[in-house]
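Technical note accompanying the year-one report. For the benefit of new consortium partners, we illustrate the data format agreed upon in the data management plan: each record pairs a sequence with a structure-token string. No post-processing was applied to the example shown here.
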Amino acid sequence: MASPLTEPQSLPAELRTYLAELVRRTHDVCGQRLVSVFAVGSVALGDYRHGRSDVDVTVIAEPALSEEALRELANALAALDCPAAGLELVLYDSDFAARPSGAAGFRLNLNCGPLLPYRADLDPSGAPAFWFVIDRAIARQSGRLLYGRPVDQALAAPSHSAQLAAVRASVRAHAQDEGHLADNQVLNGCRAVVFCRTGRWFAKSEAAQRLAESDPAVRPLVDEALRSFRRPRTAALPLPPAEVRRFLSWVREYVDNTGDTQRSS
């Protein structure tokens, strides 16, 4: 592979070498079965923050890729020194990726890196689908191509109703406070409300700024969450738990009402 990355200059400087090696290793394992590799999450949305953000990557490969190859890929990528907080990589079969779906649907779900516990799941049946639906929606809207077939030719967007259901599920998950940073709970809540209002996915910080401008009552908490979000993950600021709970309850009610309105229309 003479040029492993498409438009490397468009990527954060801290990630270029790492992503180039990630693409090389993925191609080494998948060979001609590799269809596309693209960045999603904060890199795609233009809000990658070194020391805070994960690197989110979607891989699409032809269905003939074996489980043995998937395990080999997981080991090869986990051995890389990730410069970000962690790598969250999901591999889909090309036939699944080509059709809209509200399912998790992955062949490989890999988490690794300095601040993420290692996991390499090959079975999507027990995984909460909403994370994957939201990631695919962001990928289809804003995915940054790293290698192969363009995103709009390789990946179908989940339906709007599937995305809305995923938003509702994500709000409930964040409200349960299971390992989430408080600032991330608040900012994901902001993004959920802004998605319901606009039908588009924004970076967490931009969604938070939009919500703070339109809803002054939540601005103090949102501003504090943004201040924390600008710090490294290991130096996040504590937010008032009662205010966070009230905010997430308001978000949940807003999202649920949006769903009820759309289902009855």
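Partners are asked to follow this layout when depositing records. Strands lie at 34-40, 55-61, 87-93, 108-112, 119-121, 144-148.
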